[in-house]
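User: Show me a protein chain along with its predicted structure.
Assistant: Here is one chain, sequence first, then structure tokens.
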Amino acid sequence: MLMNYFQIAFRNLWKNKSFTIINIVGLAIGMSISLLALLFVTNELSFDRFHVKKDRIHRVITKIESSTRGTEISGINTAGVGLSFLQEIPEIEAMVRTTQPQRGFFTFSDENFNNKFILYADSSFFKVFSFPLILGNSETVLDQKYKIVLTENLAMQIFGDANNAMGKIISLNNKDNLQVTGIMKNIPLNSHVRFDALISFNSQDTIKDLGWNGGWQYCTYLLLHENADVENVENQFVPIAEENINKYQNESWNYFLQPLVEVHLNNTLDWDISSQGSITNIILYLAVSFIILLIACINFINLTTAASLKRMKEVGVRKVTGATRQNIIWQFLTETILISIIALVHAIILIEIFYLWLTWATGDISVLENFELYNKSFLQLAGVIIFLIFSVGLMAGAYPAFYMSGFNPALAVKGRIKFNKGNSITRSWGLVFQFSISIISIICTLIIATQLNYLLKTDKGFDPTNKIVIPLTSESTMDKVNILKDAFLGIPGIEKAGASSGIPGRGYTRNGYLPEGLSDHIMIHVLDVDYDYLPTMGLEIIKGRSFSKEFGLDKDAYLINEALALQLGWDIPIGKTIRRGGEHKVIGVVKNYNFSPLHVNIEPLIFTLKPWQGYEYITLQTSGMQNDFKSELEKKWKSVVPYEDFNSFTLTSHVRKAYNSVKGNMYMLLVCSILSILIAVLGLYGLTAFTTRQRYKEIAIRKVYGADMKKIFNLVSSGFIKWVVVANIIAWPVAYFIMDNYFLANFAHNTGIKWWVFVLALVFSITISLLVILVQILRLSRLNPIDYIRYE
């Protein structure tokens, strides 16, 4: 019997090719989005859950409350915080600090190996985290200075065979000689802590100078004892913070714990060192994917119901010849499940296309680097596939199966089945639902695109165009910074060169300072620059003057930005002093610029001429000529430091990377918009086909009495356009609420919601609807009215 159902199903699907293709396309789109979202969400929710002690590991979060700057929450701490907590709170079993991922190069056998995921970490790292070691003792691999643990991939890259790495000495940045004491498995993609090399924390030269109010650049993780009360631990943070930092400054620094498994999905922090996911995005993607699958099923119902007019006699004949209602239901369900199977095959192909397109469209694979297709076992994926096949088949086929199986056989054979008004209204509201989702997607995409354009093109206080950045990773290159600058300036087209400890786009570190007039220290961002950096960046001095070689005392002087002058209430800041390791006079005020992403407001900043560890970047201003600067720059680099590899990137690309998550969301939503529009158009096509089939005789009579196609077009379209307008009325406030509360609210600088996005969505939805209806009317124009009224 089952085989017979499938044979008849194949015959009917082949006979109605256009109907079959439309249904397969609609369901394939819905399935692909649902399966992609399911894999993505499963991957996002799995972050950091492979750690054995995950339930006891917490990250220390800093909450800074200032009367002038408001509240700021950060996943970054100073180096002394975790150490004090470990020493004074008995519920803490272990503590580990890690740096931000750093660029550098390793040298072995006179060959350099560049890497951008180098971390420094405490010796307790492998006690806290469950990153498996292949070789080495987890308790001793990082217990002394200048020890390093390599991932398997990096060890093979440097030594050819991971087993040959143990005990070998490699040089980092031509400065520190590190002994390989451990080899570990490659870091899982679902880990928020990413590194290729792990160096003992005390290998940093400046670590002895770090306390509570300096070196704001570390992540701190605590491993609590079993059954430890998290709230009790957090309460003990208060007196420790008061003793070590709060009593020395006029800001309140409070600390609380964040469970490890929540780190990746928390996107509410103002400062963090790792890429973040978003629980809001997960909910959004699941909701959108389910809705797209749902409207694909609604389309299927509309199209199948419309096609039922052709199959009334078939159903009637089957019933007359003895088929039961159950037989009819199973026949139609078999057809829908068969279509679901075919659609699923095409859905898997579409998944690959969507993934490749998103990677290409964002221009940076890092947007999707934590998402790996088909990372589930075969049985898990097979379970998802079987679930999709049967759920979609049942959802899409249940209504037409039960509806058509209930036809009166005598009326069905004569083709006199009446379709009541209630069914028509239900299908119309289905169309409203489809178009509402499409319009919401269109509006949200337009608003995100507008905001992204604003983020990239708005005046940030500096112009990143025509600027090339060259990282200085080793001490020797830092020592030769002026020689390198002079060499680069000898290249035609290189106009200016300046050195700094950081570059704008991601933010700078901060330290504790005591400005004149205050009794307590405050934490302020700091950037170390040379004399030429501000002119190279085009930063404007609005009060006082910039650093100058003509003034010897400028070595100890400071520049501040407008935000700091405003926070301190300094109307005349020139001549004021700020203390940190001595007294420093303010000689000028720099116009505010966005050194951090536009998610946050411009914060106070100090400029110094004394780099803590040396200048880390050279920034070049070019003439904008279409020169191959990279090859020329590399030649000059090799002439000064022949033993080191050359790296460079444009400042524009660096700034754009800060908004990759926004860009990725925009393109993902764009895909959803295009697909939801396509499905809605298919739904409109099905509904117009259904309606016009019901009105064939009416339209034929009108044509006989002289009605032209324009009048028939107006007759048919008027009933649909009103529903499209209703869909817009429903979609507008929903889209506004979502964008205003859950997207634009995340940006300190935003473009707002423009009125024209709603008008554009309305015009587009009406235009596309009219085009679909026009296709149906043109098809009707070729029909002979006599064929439909000859028996009346």
